[in-house]
Amino acid sequence: DTGVSQDPRHKITKRGQNVTFRCDPISEHNRLYWYRQTLGQGPEFLTYFQNEAQLEKSRLLSDRFSAERPKGSFSTLEIQRTEQGDSAMYLCASSLGTVGPNYGYTFGSGTRLTVV
Amino acid sequence: GQQVMQIPQYQHVQEGEDFTTYCNSSTTLSNIQWYKQRPGGHPVFLIQLVKSGEVKKQKRLTFQFGEAKKNSSLHITATQTTDVGTYFCAGNSGGSNYKLTFGKGTLLTVNP
User: Fold this and answer.
1) Separation between Cα atoms, residue A55 and residue B47, nearest integer Å
2) Which among A56, A100, A110 has CB closest to B42?
3) Could you tell me where the beta strands, DSSP code E, fall in chain B?
4) Which residues does chain B have with pLDDT short of 50?
5) To the nearest whole number, what is the mean pLDDT of chain A?
6) Does B10 reach chain A within 8 Å, measured CB to CB?
7) Which residues of B touch A45 (CB under 8 A)?
8) pLDDT tier at A99 (50, 70, 90 boundaries)?
9) Quick check: B17 and B108 in contact, CB under 8 A?
10) Element at B97 (helix H, strand E)
11) Is the pLDDT of residue A62 over 90?
């Protein structure tokens, strides 16, 4: 296992188009998170899965955003009718969900979305 | 909702100088984690602190968790150019979701 993979790395889209991002977590990790990061800011929580169940969704996430994790493996994040304000780095992370000095999130390299 | 604040926002040092970043949470935390993000990269996990008053060291990095579990600090001794990046603290307020709330980070630049 080489870590958390995200695809694509970059996406440029026209305003109003739909985009979908994919995340493949570390296989032993049952928890998967999506975060969004803009320049000069820390990652901002979007949504969380435990196995295939989406257990929490940020109030900041509009109805244009939807995420799935079929069969508790990979996850997809879809943004419909993109707006310029959606331009950001979308980060996926996975974790074991265990408290301890060595148990943190493993982030993927992210998908950088630019809406023009 | 929970807020995590970090200061300073930026810190520029000469190589060999020490560096400290401070993190404060609006609520008591179950645990706190620290991440490093190199320019153009993604956050990389450094450590998780769980116990009140805990101090952990990783080579030149020293991490502390406050007695009240609402604040934390990261201290780097004798900075090197490889320490350049943004350091984020991230708090977990408990519960089974292990959701982290990140601070805005401290960008460290090191002049060789």
Assistant:
1) 25
2) A110
3) 4-7, 10-14, 19-25, 31-37, 44-49, 55-58, 61-65, 71-76, 85-92, 101-102, 106-111
4) none
5) 92
6) no
7) 99-101
8) low
9) no
10) none
11) no
pLDDT of residue B97: 66
Interchain CB distance below 8 Å, A42 and B102: yes
A103 contacts B48? CB cut-off 8 A: yes
Q: How far apart are CA B112 and CA B23, in angstroms?
A: 27
CB contact at 8 A, B102 and A43: yes
For an interface test with B, give the residue of A23, A44, A45 to mutate (most B CBs within 10 A).
Answer: A45
Count other Cβ atoms within 10 Å, centred on residue B35: 26
**Contact residues, chain A, for B62 at CB < 8 Å:** none
Q: Quick check: B77 and B62 in contact, CB under 8 A? A: yes
Distances from the Cα of A91 to the Cα of A87, B28, B29, B32, B81, angstroms: 13, 26, 23, 20, 26
Using only C-alpha atoms, chain B has a radius of gyration, in whole angstroms, of: 13
Confidence of residue A55 (pLDDT cuts 50, 70, 90): confident
Contact B90, B33 (CB under 8 A): yes
A104–B42: do the CB atoms touch at under 8 Å?
A: no
Inspect the interface and report whether the beta carbons of B97 and A50 lie closer than 8 Å.
yes
Most A CBs within 10 A among B36, B44, B48, hence the mutation to make, goes to B48
Q: Is the peptide bond before B8 cis (omega within 30 degrees of 0)?
A: yes
